[in-house]
Each structure stands twice: as structure tokens, then as C-alpha cells.
Amino acid sequence: MLTFNGSIFLPSVLTLIGIPGLESVQCWIGIPFCAMYLIAVMGNSLIFIIIKYENSLHIPMYIFLSMLAATDIALSTCILPKMLGIFWFHLPQISFDTCLLQMGLIHTFQAMESGILLAMALDRYVAICDPLRHATIFSHQLLTHIGLGVTLRAAILVVPSLLLIKCRLKLFRTTLISHSYCEHMAIVKLAAEDTRVNKIYGLFVAFTILGFDIIFITLSYAQIFITVFQLPQKEARFKAFNTCIAHISVFLQFYLLAFFSFFTHRFGSHIPRYVHILLSNLYLLVPPFLNPIVYGVKTKQIRDYVLKMLFFKKTP
Q1: Residue 316 pLDDT
Q2: End-to-end Cα, the chain, rounded Å
Q3: Reduced to 3 DSSP states, what percent helix, strand and coil does the chain have, rounded to the nearest 5?
Q4: pLDDT, mean of residues 74-91
Q5: If DSSP states are collapsed to H, E and C, what string results for 192-247?
Q6: Which strands sit side by side in the sheet containing 93-95, from one edge to the other?
Q7: Bridge partners (DSSP) listed for residue 171
Q8: Could you report the per-residue pLDDT of 101-124, keeping only the tens digit for each?
Q9: What is the reported pTM?
Q10: From CA 287, how far away is CA 257, in angstroms rounded?
Q11: Which residue, among 281, 301, 297, 294, has the nearest Cα to 250 in the 3D structure?
Q12: Spatial contact of 69 and 287, defined as CB atoms under 8 Å apart
């Protein structure tokens, strides 16, 4: 590894510390994290399989839910295996290119999840505010275009952040990453060069994705609430509102955790470092863990199908 004026030139290997300040208890922290991961994978896989093989669920709301489940599986799988390798097996080293790949995948799947939540909000908006045109607007062709658009938007915005690190940053103060996974700002802060362009672009991507999606999701639900409360019958209001509860719960948990993680990481200098890292971990692990539980409890069709799978017995 070459050094230049005390800096490291193009390091080939980086070291993930894990959770700074909690190294002695990381093995115990890994137990609930592993349990959350297993529940997330099993729960989201079950939802995906149910929607795939149950023809009555081949409608936009459940197709978006299957996309969310697949994204949650991919997102949590990008993080947990390496994190548990650090916590349990003391394997903190990761090659520089692999670290960039993990960073790119994590931020891409985060952006995709945000885009899917926006698509689900728009689907509920049309279903409640303009139900007669819902089937016409949300055709299979549109669903395909939305899926491609969500994926391409995430990739197009994330790839430049990888290139800015790979092509611009050559000198690094250290190879120790004070984090349990490869995150954009955690890598950028290692550099001994001017990183203003990297930081500005990172903020641009965050506000472009989260800011845009949150604004339109909020506007959609504001209009939904106005329409629901104008319905003449109480039963109709309750039924319309009930179809949105699961999505609102998922929306709130995803974006509240995102904002807590974002602002403590950038502006919470007085907050202990391990709090930053724990919040970042929970931001990526809690939504995939809770989403199948929320939708399983609140969505009657999925709940009934799961109960049928568990208790159905063939008659002789």
C-alpha cells in the first residue's frame, strides 16, 4: 500500500469498525439484527410468493407490494451478511471495489423503495379519488414502466456518486471506516482531498429522491383524506381509510427513520457516534422487518391466504 505525505494512495482494502464504542457488545447486538433479518427474508418471501401465485392479487396495489417485498429482501441481504461477519467472526476487511459495490447497491435499493412507496401512494390516490378510471390508468403497461422508471432513476442518480469516489479521490487519511457497512459519507470522510463535490452531490441525491417522493406522497394523502371525509356514509369512509392504513404505517416508519439517520449523521455532532451508526442500521433493517408484519396484519387477502396455508387440511 503506497503512502504519500502521511496519506494512503488508492488503498485496496478498507476496514469496517462496526459500531464504534460498542465493540465489546457487538456479538450480542448481532443476535436481534440476525433475527430481524431472518424474519424480513421469510416474511417478504412469503408475501412475494402469495402475490405471485394468487391470481386474485394480480392488481396494482399487490404488484407494488411484491416489488417492495423483493426490494426489502435485496436491501437487507446487502447489509446483514457482512455486518454479522464483523460482529461474530471478526472479519472487518473489505476490498475497496467491493465496498463501493455494497454502497451502490444499498443506496440504489433505498431509492427504489422510496419510489415504490410513491407509486403505492399514487395508486391509492387514483383508487379512492377517481375509482372509475383506476383500471384504465394503472394498466399492466404502466406498471411495467413504473418498475423500470423506479429502477433507472435509482441507478442513474447513484452511479455518479460511485464514479466521483472512484475517479476523484486518490489519497485517504485512513482505511478505517467508522461504520458497520459501506455508506457514502462514511467513505467520503476518509479522503484527504477536497470532497465538496462528493458531499454536494450526496445531498442533491438525498433531496432529489426523498424530497420529491415525500412531497408527492404527502399531497396524495392530503387529497385522499379530503375525498374520504367527504363521503356521505361512515362505513364507506372507514372502508376507504382502512385500505390506506398499512401503506401510511410503512411510509411513516421508512421516512421518519430516514430523516433521523440523515440529520443525526450530518448535524448531530454532539450525539455519540454509536447512536449515529445504530440509527443508520435500524433505518435499513427495520422497514424490511416490519413491512411484511404490517401488511400481513392489515391486509385481509394476505392474512386469509396465510391462515389457509397454515391450517388448511386436505380431506381424505
Answers
A1: 43
A2: 70
A3: 80, 5, 15
A4: 95
A5: CCCCHHHHHHHHHHHHHHHHHHHHHHHHHHHHHHHHHHCCCCHHHHHHHHHHHHHH
A6: 93-95, 13-16, 176-177
A7: 9
A8: 999 999 999 999 999 999 999 999
A9: 0.92
A10: 9
A11: 294
A12: no
Cell of 134: 383506476
Whole-angstrom Cα distance, residue 291 to residue 297?
10
Q: Nearest to residue 114, comparing CAs of 81, 169, 67, 160? A: 67
- Write the single-letter amino acid at 248: I
Residue type, 181: Y
Q: What distance in Å separates the CA atoms of residue 302 and residue 30, rounded to the nearest whole number?
A: 30
pLDDT tens profile 250-272: 888 888 878 777 776 666 667 78
Read off the amino acid at residue 94. Answer: I
Separation CA 101–CA 106 (nearest Å): 9
The number of angstroms, rounded, from the C-alpha of 122 to the middle of its chain's C-alpha atoms is 19
Write down how long the chain is: 316
Cα–Cα distance between 19 and 277 in angstroms, integer? 6
